[in-house]
Amino acid sequence: MNKEIEDFYGCLKDLYSDIVRTRTKTISTQEFKDRAIGIYETWKIKVKPLLANLKIDYNVLNGLDGLFEVTYSEATSRVGDVSHLKDTLGELHETFLNKIINPLKNGQTAEPTASVMESASFLGLDTNWSVAVCALQLQEVAVTLVAEKLNIDLGKTNVEQILNAKIDSKDFSFNHKYEAFRTEVKHRFDVDMPFLTTQFRRMRVKVLHEGYNPEPEEKDSLVSFTIGLLRKLQDICNKT
User: Fold this and answer.
1) How far is CA 27 from CA 16, 22, 24, 175, 224, in A?
2) Backbone angles phi, psi at 77, to 5 degrees
3) Which of 116, 148, 181 is the last residue of a domain?
4) Residue 123: pLDDT band by 50, 70, 90 thresholds?
5) Rounded to an integer, what distance in angstroms lies between the CA atom of residue 203 and that of residue 212?
6) Which pLDDT band holds residue 28 (cuts at 50, 70, 90)?
């Protein structure tokens, strides 16, 4: 196996182990965050291009890239709690082990089939688009799954009842479901879920339905919002 890839995984695993061994939840985290940022930069500059040259499947690389983006967002946040960074790094190091390290050790690489994104390259969709799509779809999936766990019916009839409004079937969307979910969560748990601004809703439509490639700062904003939403949802689940 390429030594550079193996050394990189060692650094990733060591950082995760160091955070796990830390007993207190809220600590001085700057060293951890600096190391996480360094790992993210090494991934972007050295390791990802190296794996691409080894013909690792694009979907595997894209999935890892999304996790590294979340890691970077966590590492650059002002929050002094590293528990979410620890969770992300845990998923990242496990995914890297199973998708990259083990196949390479066994002399395997992902099948050199044309990936969906490679096939769609003529459309001009870039990595910012794919990361943004992942974040936006994750919001909808997460809300749907948590709503099921909390027995909140997000069907059209019940959403109309919660919002006290008649909704045309052709206009019924995630926005309506989310507003109904927000209302129920506030009523049941007195928790204020993030608000979907008009600008955010327009961005969602542009990315998901019009193929808009967001600027890096727009993509980062979507990822940060998604992380905040997931934290809220996790906190609610922990209360039930």
Assistant:
1) 15, 9, 6, 38, 22
2) -75, 165
3) 116
4) confident
5) 8
6) low
